[in-house]
Amino acid sequence: MKQKHLLSLKDYSREDIEEVFDLAGRMKADPKAYARALEGKSLAMIFQKPSTRTRVSFEVGMFQLGGTSLYLGANDIQLHRGETIADTARVLSRYVDGIMARVFTHQDILDLAKYGTVPVINGLSDLLHPCQALADYFTLRERRGEIERLKVAYVGDGNNVCHELMIGAVKLGMSFAAACPNGYEPNPLIVKSSARDAQKARTPIPVVTSDPRAAVAGADLVYTDVWASMGQEAEADSRRQAFDGYQVTSELMAVAVQEAVFMHCLPAHRGEEVAADVIDGPQSVVFDEAENRLHTQKALLLLLLGQR
């Protein structure tokens, strides 16, 4: 792989993404073959936001590859006392072989990559979530084989997950439609950039609508996320009102193709953004999707840290 970091799938070619997928598939099938692949390597994991899946998948992933991970919470390092991201990146680069960070502000990820000298992985920022999209599309490929020309429908808040799914869909030759309430659409700069990339690649231009049925019609993948993300708890009540009519129900799933799957990055709120009979039903692959965070990230870690 030519890439040094994973800041966004926008920086990756289709070939780069498929290289991650192919390696992830091999590692998932025969994990013992890679048990010493990153022996002696270390990963610093910065968490400004807590997480279940991100922490466990990266920590276990490094362990399964023979490496070491260090959990650095907000109170474990000097960032909370005013040390700059630039200085943190420079110092950590003297100690570790890679940095994974789950942050509030996307600029922090960019600064870690700018000032550090080791690979940086975006474990989530307020703008993008590339590790999630990698696992999601790897899971779809497991289910459907060839995923080019499939349709992805996202229903709900036009957030970081929506952004990265849109970017990834364009890279992989899929069509993408997002249904969001007025005022909660995806970032227009991301939409415009994805449209330009789609035109260049001659793939379908992403669509943003306020109509969930129009977005989901004919979809192969139906996706949603919580209506109020971490840090938006104070907006929960107003968001419930704004998102009324945007729940993924069995009736909405019925307008997708018969073999469509349902995904959610988790944690989920049954009875809000998704009905219980959908997320717990036969079309749901949310736990396969969660497991595949481990496999795709192990592949990513080997491709990025194994080069050093």
Notable features of this structure?
308 residues; Rossmann fold; 2 domains; 5-stranded parallel beta sheet; 14% strand
Q: Explain this structure to me?
A:
This protein is an alpha/beta fold and 308 residues long. The protein has two domains: 9-129 and 290-305, Rossmann fold, CATH 3.40.50.1370; 130-285, Aspartate/ornithine carbamoyltransferase (Rossmann fold, 3-Layer(aba) Sandwich), CATH 3.40.50.1370. Helix content is 42%, strand content 14%. The protein has twelve helices and nine strands. It has helices at 14-29, 53-64, 85-95, 106-115, 130-144, 160-171, 188-201, 212-216, 236-242, 250-253, 276-279, 286-305, and strands at residues 42-47, 68-73, 98-102, 120-124, 151-155, 175-179, 207-209, 221-224, 261-264. The strands form two sheets. The protein has a five-stranded parallel β-sheet with strand order 7-6-5-8-9. It has a four-stranded parallel β-sheet with strand order 2-1-3-4, with helices on both faces. β5 (151-155), α6 (160-171) and β6 form a beta-alpha-beta unit. α2 (53-64) packs across α12 and α6 runs parallel beside α7. It is globular, with a radius of gyration of 19 Å.
**Sheet having the most strands:** 5 strands, parallel
Mean pLDDT: 96
What is the CATH topology assignment of the largest domain?
Rossmann fold
Number of strands: 9
**CATH homolog superfamily of the largest domain:** Aspartate/ornithine carbamoyltransferase
How many discrete domains? 2
Intertermini distance: 12 Å
* Beta-strand percentage range: 5-15%
Overall shape: it is globular
Tally the helices: what do you get? 12
Tell me the strand order in the biggest sheet: 7-6-5-8-9
Unreliable stretches, pLDDT < 50, 5 or more residues?
none
CATH class category label of the largest domain: Alpha Beta
The radius of gyration computed from the alpha-carbon positions, rounded to a whole number of angstroms, is 19 Å
Helix content: 40-55%
Oligomer: single chain
